[in-house]
């Protein structure tokens, strides 16, 4: 009958369309993956990813945390975590992550010369991302934080199609153009069925160290409005403090070097909010 | 066979790319302000926005709701005002809703970029500014390849002063060398913030990194642009910063950058 033929045709079409797509498979040893994304460049994904990874470990010392820098073109994590050098290979030919402050890290930055650009088309990028995900000896991790590059393209698609993601956190500054991209970022995760845990408002306000006058350099409250429109929570608000950038530039992120500072406290709170919203981890 | 003289870019006198490597350093901002400053010097300018994932240009001119029309030679670029002295092309105009996400892999992006370069009826203009996304990926490779027959003037590289930005821009310089793209100079953006209340200057994103990179790499340094809330605000509102805020802290720097570009092109071409 035409009904069952229609069904068979539909199933065949789905089969053909999904041929060639990677099968989603968890990374061995990693319990939960949290991705930090934005859509917009330069809003502080890497800075936040580094401090959140450290905050997750600081909030609960029994948890093992890893940090994967998926920004193939502009890997910032090595500098921020004060790590350098090529990864060793284990007997099983997996790359051993570099560790600092108790966090296991992997980045394209460890595999290339610091001054060499990665001028690759999407297909090569997919294969590099696959290596960074699967050919690393992560050991047993409670959380793997993945720092995404800006945009909504190959890397984001490859990561979400390859591994199950427990939740995504979207970072934005208050400017219109950043919010517009953050919205696209949220939509992208919706398309690939990754739950969005909430938004983080970064660079929210600047306080002059001399006269304490506050200036909203990049606008005000835009992220709150976007969160409301998208029905998402704000996980936290990070002010524009010079010490955040200074400590990252010197490879001593504020959560470990100035744990009593307002900035560190903001990150610790956001890490707590992330854990609250994650599903119960697998045993 | 292909003839650059008969193409849609035949009437464009100079093509320049705005690159970075790092995201969020102000490429679109600098592209926009450069276009406005060149317009104020009496030039006709176009901006081609090849950032397909995060097209910021339409919003910066407050024309994000405009549509693109077709003509015999291809797409008609969107004019910013009645004057028709600034025209734009961006994927932002082609989306059904401005908030639609473009989640494409490389080959699809390449196809659209080729169309943007070949099928937009730019007409006669003095400068076409090409605003790019961060990185050194499909968009950049395709754009440089597609523009090669038209011999672009060169590239302006934008960075913020901090180490992670400078690192990415250093890689972008290598990209330019590899692809034979002349570097017109480096702009150090978000270089210092002057408190509107007490005038104390804080180097939120550090200072001097861009200038040092230019010196190290042997390329011209076009100047430092400070963090200026009036600039951010005028971009949010799609206003003409160059016209409306001539006393603002970023104005002098932006005007100086435009002047150096003009000076560079007023020499007889070799």
From TrEMBL, chain A:
Its main location: mitochondrion. Keywords: 4Fe-4S, ATP-binding, Iron, Iron-sulfur, Metal-binding, Mitochondrion, Nucleotide-binding, Transit peptide. This is Iron-sulfur cluster transfer protein NUBPL. GO terms for cellular component: mitochondrial matrix. Belongs to the Mrp/NBP35 ATP-binding proteins family. Iron-sulfur cluster transfer protein involved in the assembly of the mitochondrial membrane respiratory chain NADH dehydrogenase (Complex I). May deliver one or more Fe-S clusters to complex I subunits. It is found in: Mitochondrion. It comes from Cochlearius cochlearius. One of its GO terms (biological process) is iron-sulfur cluster assembly. HAMAP family: Mrp_NBP35. One of its GO terms (molecular function) is 4 iron, 4 sulfur cluster binding. InterPro entries: Mrp-like_CS, Mrp/NBP35_ATP-bd, NUBPL-like, P-loop_NTPase, YlxH/NBP35.
TrEMBL record, chain B:
GO terms for molecular function: 4 iron, 4 sulfur cluster binding; ATP binding; ATP-dependent FeS chaperone activity; metal ion binding. GO terms for biological process: iron-sulfur cluster assembly. SUPFAM superfamilies: P-loop containing nucleoside triphosphate hydrolases. This is NUBP2 factor. Heterotetramer of 2 NUBP1 and 2 NUBP2 chains. Interacts with KIFC1. Interacts with NUBP1. It is found in: Cytoplasm, Cytoskeleton, Cilium axoneme; Cytoplasm, Cytoskeleton, Microtubule organizing center, Centrosome, Centriole. It comes from Cochlearius cochlearius (Boat-billed heron). Its main location: cytoplasm. InterPro entries: Mrp-like_CS (IPR000808), Mrp/NBP35_ATP-bd (IPR019591), NUBP2/Cfd1_eukaryotes (IPR028600), P-loop_NTPase (IPR027417), YlxH/NBP35 (IPR033756). GO terms for cellular component: axoneme; centriole; cytosol; nucleus. It holds the Pfam family ParA. Keywords: 4Fe-4S, ATP-binding, Cytoplasm, Iron, Iron-sulfur, Metal-binding, Nucleotide-binding. Component of the cytosolic iron-sulfur (Fe/S) protein assembly (CIA) machinery. Required for maturation of extramitochondrial Fe-S proteins. The NUBP1-NUBP2 heterotetramer forms a Fe-S scaffold complex, mediating the de novo assembly of an Fe-S cluster and its transfer to target apoproteins. Negatively regulates cilium formation and structure. It comes from the Eukaryota. Transmembrane segments: none annotated.
């Amino acid at each position: 009958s035409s009904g069952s033929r229609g069904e068979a045709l539909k199933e065949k079409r789905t089969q053909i369309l999904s041929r060639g797509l990677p099968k989603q498979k968890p990374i061995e040893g990693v319990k939960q993956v949290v991705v930090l994304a934005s859509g917009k460049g330069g809003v502080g994904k890497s800075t936040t990813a580094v401090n959140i990874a450290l905050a997750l470990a600081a909030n609960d010392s029994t948890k093992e945390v890893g940090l994967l820098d998926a920004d193939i073109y502009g890997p910032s994590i090595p500098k921020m975590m004060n790590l350098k050098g090529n990864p060793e290979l284990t007997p099983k030919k997996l790359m051993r992550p570099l560790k600092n402050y108790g966090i296991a890290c992997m980045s394209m930055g460890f595999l290339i010369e610091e001054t060499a650009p990665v001028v690759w088309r999407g297909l090569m990028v997919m294969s590099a991302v696959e290596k960074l995900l699967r050919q690393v000896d992560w050991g047993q991790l409670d959380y793997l934080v993945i720092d995404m590059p800006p945009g909504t393209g190959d890397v984001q698609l490859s990561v979400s199609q390859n591994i199950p993601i427990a939740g995504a956190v979207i970072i934005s500054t208050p400017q219109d153009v950043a919010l517009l991209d953050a919205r696209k970022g949220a939509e992208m995760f919706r398309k690939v069925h990754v739950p969005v845990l909430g938004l983080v408002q970064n660079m929210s306000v600047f306080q002059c160290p001399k006269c304490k006058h506050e200036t909203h350099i990049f606008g005000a409250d835009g992220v709150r409005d976007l969160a409301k429109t998208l029905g998402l929570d704000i996980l936290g608000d990070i002010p524009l403090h010079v010490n955040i950038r200074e400590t990252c530039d010197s490879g001593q992120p504020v959560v470990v070097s100035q744990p009593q500072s307002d900035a560190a406290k903001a990150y610790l709170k956001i890490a707590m909010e992330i854990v609250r919203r994650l599903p119960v981890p697998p045993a | 066979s292909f003839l650059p003289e008969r193409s849609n870019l035949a009437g464009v006198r100079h093509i320049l790319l705005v690159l970075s490597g790092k995201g969020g350093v102000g490429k679109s901002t600098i592209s926009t302000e450069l276009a406005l400053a060149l317009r104020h010097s009496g030039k006709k300018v176009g901006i081609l926005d090849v950032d397909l994932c995060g097209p910021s240009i339409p919003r910066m001119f407050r024309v994000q709701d405009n549509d693109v029309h077709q003509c015999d030679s291809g797409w008609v670029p969107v004019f910013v005002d009645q004057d028709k002295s600034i025209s734009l092309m961006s994927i932002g105009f082609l989306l059904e809703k401005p908030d639609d996400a473009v989640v494409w892999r490389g080959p699809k992006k390449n196809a659209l970029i080729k169309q943007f370069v070949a099928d937009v009826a730019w007409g006669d203009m003095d400068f076409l500014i090409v605003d790019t996304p961060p990185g050194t990926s499909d968009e950049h490779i395709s754009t440089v390849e597609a523009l090669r027959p038209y011999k672009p003037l060169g590239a302006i590289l934008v960075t913020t002063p901090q180490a992670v930005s400078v690192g990415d821009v250093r890689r972008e310089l290598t990209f330019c060398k590899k692809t034979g793209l002349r570097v017109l100079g480096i702009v150090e953006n978000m270089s210092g913030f002057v408190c509107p209340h007490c005038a104390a200057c804080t180097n939120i994103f550090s200072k001097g990194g861009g200038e040092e990179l230019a010196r190290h790499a042997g390329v011209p340094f076009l100047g430092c642009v400070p963090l200026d809330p009036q600039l951010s605000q005028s971009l949010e509102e799609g206003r003409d910063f160059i016209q409306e805020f001539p006393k603002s802290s970023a104005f002098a720097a932006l005007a100086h950058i435009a002047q150096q570009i003009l000076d560079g092109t007023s020499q007889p071409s070799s």
